[in-house]
Every structure is written in structure tokens, then in C-alpha cells.
Amino acid sequence: MEIERLSFLCHDDYVKDRNDFTFISSKFAERKNTASDLGRHKEFTEYTNLEECISYLCNYITTHGPFDGLLGFSQGATLSALLMGYQSQGKVLKDHPPFKFFISVSGSKFRIPSICEVAYKDPNKAKSVHFIGEKDWLKLPSEDLAAAFQEPLIIRHPQGHTVPRLDEEATEKLLNWVKELLVQTRKAKDCVQNVEAQKEQEKTEEACEAAKEEHNFTEKREVEVVQA
Q1: If residue 22 lies in a helix (H) or strand (E), which one and from where to where?
Q2: Of the listed 74, 106, 108, 128, which one is catalytic?
Q3: Catalytic site residue from 128, 136, 142, 157
Q4: With 109 labelled, which of 23, 73, 101, 146 sits at a CA distance of 20 to 30 A?
């Protein structure tokens, strides 16, 4: 039996190679002379190089894809959610298949009104799982991001702003979520294959019918010629 594999585009390398993971690093370097935890004490209302970053990611996805879903931690999750929202609204990646899933670890929404009006206009229909830490300073923003998706799976953990080590209960929830995703992916592919097979069958039947009509017409003409 063929084992289904999913293609992930990841903005962080906190996961092991399990399906097909593609890791992409930021194109822009972090500003110098900035404390690593400064972000905890300032509002995320200003973003630099955002349009260039979106363009870079869309080009990468188009060139190296297609990808089944996106996975990210912190800003990587925030940016991934933005791309998914933009795609669902037809703003970017119009020629790329719709993303099937999203995995967010400590992600949040962009807070620029012009972005929110587009990216989070409607609940995203992709399957999603959101890891939210009880001690994470982005706990509430992470919950707000999860609310932007239809039927999100929220996995809570007692840690802070980090990729958590999961207990047995959380691991079981995640595994069941992945199994459901794989089943849906397989059903979708089977459906597409069935539709394509049906189209091919219809083309074959049409060709046979056309050949039959041509054969009958030729026989009729031959009979007319003989009688003449």
C-alpha cells in the first residue's frame, strides 16, 4: 500500500524529517544592536520589507512547489497565516493549489488594518492546529489567530514562547489530526483521479462513436456507388 506523504513548507527547522519538509530561511537579516527579547516589550504594528518578503516567498513556493501546507513558529507562523489568508482571497499564489493545512506554533495575526481586512476577512477553511503556551506572551494573539480558521485544533501546553515538548495526550491529539488530514488528502486525490478517469472514458466513448458513425457512413456510400 502506498504511504501518503505531505509536502510542508517550513519557516523554522524545529521539526524532524517525517514527511517532505522544505525549510526556508528569512531573506532579510535581523537588525543589529537589538536585544533578542525586545519584541516582548513593543507592539508589532510596524513591519519592514513585508512586501518584498511576501514576493520572495510566493516566488519560492511557485518555483519549488506545490506544497500541501505551511508550518511556522512565531513570526514564521504569523507570515504563513498571512500567505494562507491572502491565497484564499485570491491575492497571491493564484496558480498554486489551495493549501490543505496550517501548523502554527506561537503564531499571531498581523495588526495592520489593511492586512486584516483582506487576510482574515473570512474564516480559513484549511485544517489547522495551533500550539499555544499558557506562559507565552503571545497567548491571546495566538488564540485570536486560531479563531481565524474553521474548526481549529488548539493544543495547549504549560510552557512559554517555544516549540513545546508534548505529553501523551497532546501527542495523541496531534497524531489523530494528522491521520484525518492524510485520509482527506487521499480521498481528494482519489476523487481527482476518478474524475480524470471518467473524462478519459468519455473521450474514448466519443471517439468510438465517431469512428462507428464514420464507418457506417463509408459503408452507406459504398452501397450507393455499387447501386449506381
Answers
A1: strand 20-23
A2: 74
A3: 136
A4: 23
